[in-house]
């Protein structure tokens, strides 16, 4: 059977298509193991229209992924599929539709919405298509984890599918399905120059923490991990077979089991794979990061880790359900500095309850911690998060009406509630970047790093965004 997987184009004010979409790489892998012929159409890097790819490949089923700012382009892609191949089933999955499944299930161009983890559900859908049991609008469809519209117009939500228990049973992501030469690199401080051959990997899934602002809350709460030996095998494949020059781990909580991460590091060192730099893209838990763990990660090749700090105010920290203290954050950054680990700090301006005083505390805390990179974003209440519920039930006001504007890279406030006004968020966000990066010590540190000059074009673009941060306007998302 022929399977087409689509990553819809999304317009952002900064380039983010640095590596292939990991979720589609997994779906492609399980489809190939099932015996299917698979193609991936990533609109961010393709140079032919989707309609051309559809006519040439003639897929039997199409899968589309969608986060919140991507969902409207996903619907347009689905409409294009139906215009060219009206009888081919179109399946959509991803964070946004998992949070709001009825919205997409009700649309005429969408046949099935997959909620949560998709691999097992996708395989059952492919089996149904192959055996011609896909009369979804005319009969009861008993696949777990899906939503769909019946012939009489009702949207049906089948029972949820349990999260995959044995992650080692999954095949490695099918990177050979992507045009690897068209992707850039992970983050702008790996020693290699811009354009390094980068791959992403997940060693665990799920998160036991339910932070109020995090869209992870719509995914399985149960934390599951691959065995260190299984991760090592894929790591060796990426380096030896695919020529990886850098690797980014996308785990949400990689250090939940400290012993497992230590064992993985020991295996990487023993296998002499620690010459390839790797980073923790989404960060690790600060309260579970100590000097021994960070030192072992550094010895195993980890160049940089991120920490989700979010705020410098202890009461705001409690209110967002982070289960973290400021002193634990300080200790993690001290330990990272001691072992020579580069750090990223993620900070949020405009959390519920934020005001001028607490935002000032966040800026001061960022300066105190002094990570290599401080990433300040304005709070974006995504569907499915507790903040989304708070805004809609506690007198808040959303300032964006179009899903394509739910992009946290822009300097625009997304909501207001109480003292957390749009004017205050935007002003303190700009101030945060300027005060952090334009300190004399920070400027000198940047100018004396060799990566600054190896990646000078990208460094220049970032510097301009720091010095002149401003809203980019709605046209940044026009197709």
State the shape: globular
- Mean pLDDT level: 89
**Helical residues, percent:** 25-40%
- Distance N to C terminus: 31 Å
Supply database-style keywords.
pyruvate-formate lyase- activating enzyme, Rossmann fold, 479 residues, 6-stranded parallel β-sheet, alpha/beta
Short overview:
With 479 residues, the chain is α/β, with parallel strands linked by helices. It is built from 17 helices and 17 strands. It has 2 domains: 2-150, Rossmann fold, CATH 3.40.50; 184-477, tm_1862 like domain (pyruvate-formate lyase- activating enzyme), CATH 3.80.30.
What does this protein structure show overall?
There is one protein chain. By secondary structure, this protein is of the alpha/beta class. The chain folds into two domains: 2-150, Rossmann fold; 184-477, tm_1862 like domain (pyruvate-formate lyase- activating enzyme, Alpha-Beta Horseshoe), CATH 3.80.30. The chain has 17 helices and 17 strands. The strands form four sheets. It has a seven-stranded mixed β-sheet, with helices on both faces. α8 links the parallel β11 and β12 (278-280). α2 (50-57) packs across α3, α7 runs parallel beside α8 (258-270) and α9 runs parallel beside α11. The longest helix is centred in the last third of the chain and has 16 residues, at 422-437. Mean pLDDT is 89; it is low at 188-193 and 471-479.
Secondary-structure topology with pairs:
Elements: E1 2-7, H1 22-34, E2 37-42, H2 50-57, E3 61-65, H3 71-84, E4 90-93, H4 95-99, H5 101-105, E5 112-114, H6 119-130, E6 146-149, E7 155-157, E8 198-201, E9 204-205, E10 224-225, H7 228-241, E11 246-249, H8 258-270, E12 278-280, H9 291-299, E13 302-310, H10 314-319, H11 326-339, E14 342-349, H12 356-369, E15 373-378, H13 386-393, E16 397-398, E17 415-416, H14 422-437, H15 440-447, H16 450-454, H17 456-467
Parallel strand pairs: 1-2, 1-3, 3-4, 4-5, 8-11, 11-12, 12-13, 13-14, 14-15
Antiparallel strand pairs: 5-6, 6-7, 9-10, 16-17
Helix pairs in contact: 1-6, 2-3, 7-8, 8-9, 9-11, 12-14
